[in-house]
């Protein structure tokens, strides 16, 4: 097998709480993670030359060590002293710097791809252990599905698949740095913590309405202060029938959850017509079992 094609799925955070700060500056989190059916495509080809060559459809993305895909390939190439090189094509559809783990998911897919392409025999757990060196969300992007994420994001507990619904995604035309958002978060000032344990109960009972009532993300306090347009998009989603709407991750992407296809489609067209939302997608939850 000399060529491999992979899908790198985006995630949203149905709940994001920060419960502490470590001495190295990283934050301890409790998050409900959910993979959605929006993905980048990656193809990897073994070559005789020893280099790592990356091409992408987005001209502004780095194609060297600054790209997480390159770093993922290099990490395993160095560890296993692989002599062959790899040609990688990355077709991005997940919005960049959006709070949807696009880069982390690409890195996760590249680790999985290298493992297959060079028959390294690493288990999922062993790939996840390597993934955290590239980013806190990378182990989750290898696991996928609905999961509780703790520690800095690397302690993962798989949950039952969250109840099905429609997911409207809208990203305003601004980019947000995760480092900036965590760096400007003052934990002592967080007034409302999302009820992560309640959300876990709702997920195990298949209670969509209980779940959508509890959506919450403490990082909104930092990002919305900087970019009030995020709040405007949330309000538009609710106005158009979303059961709940919050910012994903460090932002600035906003998502809304819908139980009704027609309403979700109407909200999608409305959002596309607004010039505050630059990238808009209508999708649903990725479910490992449904494929
Ligand atoms: C906020 C979240 C929510 O899922 O996602 P995104 O918005 O990035 O998608 C994650 O916690 C982001 O994970 P990830 O994007 O992998 O973070 P990393 O690349 O490891 O770290 C970027 C920077 O964020 C800060 N950071 C990250 C994770 C964490 N638990 N505490 C932190 O303080 C650190 O300052 C770090 O230098
Ligand atoms: N494969 C990649 N895809 C997207 N961004 C990447 C990638 N590799 C490195 N980056 C850099 O990482 C930054 C954050 O990207 P991304 O992972 O999309 O953000 P987020 O985690 O907020 O969704 C970008 O500004 C980009 O320069």
UniProtKB/TrEMBL annotation:
Active site at 11, 137
What GO molecular function terms would the record report?
4-(cytidine 5'-diphospho)-2-C-methyl-D-erythritol kinase activity; ATP binding
Binding of ATP occurs at 95-105
Q: Where is the GHMP kinase N-terminal domain?
A: 67-145
Q: Supply the alphabetized keyword list.
A: ATP-binding, Isoprene biosynthesis, Kinase, Nucleotide-binding, Transferase
Pathway this chain belongs to: Isoprenoid biosynthesis; isopentenyl diphosphate biosynthesis via DXP pathway; isopentenyl diphosphate from 1-deoxy-D-xylulose 5-phosphate: step 3/6
Extract one GO BP annotation from the record. isopentenyl diphosphate biosynthetic process, methylerythritol 4-phosphate pathway
Query: Pfam families under this entry?
Result: GHMP_kinases_C, GHMP_kinases_N
Sequence similarity: Belongs to the GHMP kinase family. IspE subfamily.
> Could you identify this protein by its name?
4-diphosphocytidyl-2-C-methyl-D-erythritol kinase
Q: Which organism is it from?
A: Mobilisporobacter senegalensis
Chain's gene name? ispE
């Amino acid at each position: 097998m000399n060529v491999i094609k992979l899908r790198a799925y985006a995630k949203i955070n149905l709940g994001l709480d920060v419960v502490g700060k470590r001495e190295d500056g990283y934050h301890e989190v409790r998050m409900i993670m959910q993979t959605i059916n929006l993905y980048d495509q990656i193809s990897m080809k073994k070559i005789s030359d020893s280099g790592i060559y990356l091409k992408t459809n987005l001209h502004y993305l780095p194609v060297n060590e600054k790209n997480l895909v390159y770093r993922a390939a290099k990490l395993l190439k160095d560890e296993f002293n692989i002599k062959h090189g790899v040609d990688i094509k990355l077709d991005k559809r997940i919005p960049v710097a959006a709070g949807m783990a696009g880069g982390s998911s690409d890195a996760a897919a590249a680790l999985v791809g290298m493992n297959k392409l060079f028959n390294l025999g690493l288990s999922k757990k062993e790939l996840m252990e390597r993934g955290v060196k590239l980013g806190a969300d990378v182990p989750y992007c290898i696991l996928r599905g609905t999961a509780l994420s703790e520690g800095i994001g690397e302690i993962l507990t798989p949950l039952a698949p969250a109840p099905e619904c429609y997911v409207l995604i809208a990203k305003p035309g601004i980019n947000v740095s995760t480092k900036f958002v965590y760096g400007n978060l003052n934990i002592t000032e967080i007034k409302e913590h999302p009820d992560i344990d309640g959300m876990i109960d709702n997920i195990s009972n298949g209670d969509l309405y209980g779940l959508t009532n509890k959506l919450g993300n403490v990082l909104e306090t930092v990002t919305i202060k900087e970019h009030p347009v995020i709040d405007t998009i949330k309000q538009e989603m609710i106005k158009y029938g979303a059961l709940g709407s919050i910012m994903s991750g460090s932002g600035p992407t906003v998502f809304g959850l819908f139980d009704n296809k027609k309403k979700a489609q109407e909200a999608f067209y409305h959002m596309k017509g607004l010039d505050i939302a630059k990238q808009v997608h209508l999708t649903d939850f990725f479910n490992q079992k449904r494929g």
